[in-house]
Amino acid sequence: MSNRLFQGVIHQMRDAIDRTIGVIDETSVIIACSELGRIGEVNDSITAEILATPGTFVVNGYTFKSFGSRPRPEYAVFVSGSDPEAGRYASLLAVSLSSIKQYYDEKYDRSNFIKNVILDNILPGDIYLKARELRFNADVNRVCMLIKITSKSDISAYDVVQNLFPDKNKDFIININENDIALVKEIRAGIEPKDLEKLAGSIVDTLSSEFYTHCVVGIGTTVTGIKDLARSFKEAQVALEVGKVFDTEKPIVSYDNLGIARLIYQLPTTLCDMFLKEVFKRGSIESLDHETLFTIQRFFENNLNVSETSRKLFVHRNTLVYRLEKIKKITGLDLREFEDAIVFKVALMVKKYLSSNPVKF
After folding, report:
1. Contact indicator for 41, 23 with CB cutoff of 8 Å
2. Which residues fall within 8 angstroms of residue 140, CB to CB, at 6 or more apart?
3. In a 3-state reduction of DSSP, which class is residue 23?
């Protein structure tokens, strides 16, 4: 990374400084130079001991100035010539390159740090030590979102999301794998869940309308402190997985709004099987045909209201009553009774959950 970074600066400076300029590393290799053909040359005259020289120094007609963030400098800039002007150029270049390197190293380290935190790849005791070392603000509110790409285009979704959140000191965009991108977003106190969903909606809309890339977004809960970012990220993962099972049409799923689906997701499958056998001991749920299951779904959507449901289904009220009686006869559950309706609704969700074979986080 440093080689490309240094070469970019040297390339921009070469017209302003009408001399040969470049950067050499601690292994005596030229890693950046205004004369491209010299990159990769080894200068045996520059040793680690010479790099440790304070101030500028002249070797073989070139003025050098060391820089770097370790206890000992690991780089030096060089400018052709041994005159005072060459010394000034070398000093200015060293200051500029040192500052740029520190900025990029810190940014790179911060992103890696956040990635390790959310993926639980760092010990809890090391989190705060590393945060202090990186001067990372540990006391603000943050939320994790997981953006899962469901259909690709030629555009890089990662680059698009990065451009949507340009403040690299507060917001972190992390590539998890080929299809998953994590957004760790700093938020103000008092932000409502609907505001986060609106933000997630802007990501979905931008990717789909401008770049023809479809995605779904899972939203974790807001946390204070770095350690809990891993929990927020896992919640975003759970939100997407539960949403895939129970809310297949929604592009945005918030962990806070999963309701009873979250409870079912956390149950062991053996317990779910036992529950279904207990509920449908008089007759299997598989014995209900597609039309009956569709009727049940509409009945629930209309708050167990027979008249409203029959109107929406374009059937006579007595036809709906007949279907409900048929369900009662098969399952022993009268969906017009609130408690039976709750049991049946949960049973349908459990059945859907078992059929989906979801990934557990």
Report:
1. no
2. 186, 224
3. strand
Distance from C-alpha of 223 to C-alpha of 228, rounded to nearest angstrom: 6
Which residue in 70, 86, 204 sits closest to 146, CA to CA? 204
Which residues partner with 42 through β-bridges? 29
Evaluate if residue 154 carries a pLDDT over 80: no
Q: What are the tens digits of pLDDT across the range 216-234?
A: 999 999 999 898 999 999 9
Provide CB contacts within 8 A for 68, sequence distance 6+: 74, 75, 98, 101
Instruction: pLDDT band for 3, please (50, 70, 90 cuts).
Output: confident
pLDDT grade for 284, boundaries at 50, 70 and 90: low
Residue 244's DSSP bridge partners are none
Q: Does the pLDDT value for residue 110 go beyond 90?
A: no
Joined together, the tokens standing for residue 339 give 């408690």
Q: Where do we find the tokens 């970012």? A: 229
Pairing relationship of beta strands 252-254 and 214-219 according to DSSP bridges: parallel
Find the angle CA(75)-CA(77)-CA(79) to the nearest 5 degrees. 160
Closest by CA to 162, choosing from 224, 212, 207, 117, is 207
What is the radius of gyration, based on Cα positions, of the chain? Answer: 31
Cα separation, 33 vs 40, in Å, equals: 9
Residue 277: pLDDT band (50, 70, 90) is confident
Angle at 164 between CA 159 and CA 167, to 5 degrees: 100
Instruction: Specify the 3-state DSSP secondary structure of 41.
Output: coil
Question: DSSP per residue over 270-294, as a string?
Answer: HHHHHHHHHHTSSS-GGGS-HHHHH
Q: Token pair 């009873």 is at which residue?
A: 260
Angle subtended by helix axes 338-356 and 290-301, to nearest 10:
120
Q: 76: which 2 tokens?
A: 């030096």
Q: What is the DSSP letter of 289?
A: -
Task: Please name the amino acid found at residue 148.
Answer: K
| Residue 19 confidence class, pLDDT cut points 50, 70, 90 | very high
Q: Is the pLDDT of residue 129 over 80?
A: yes
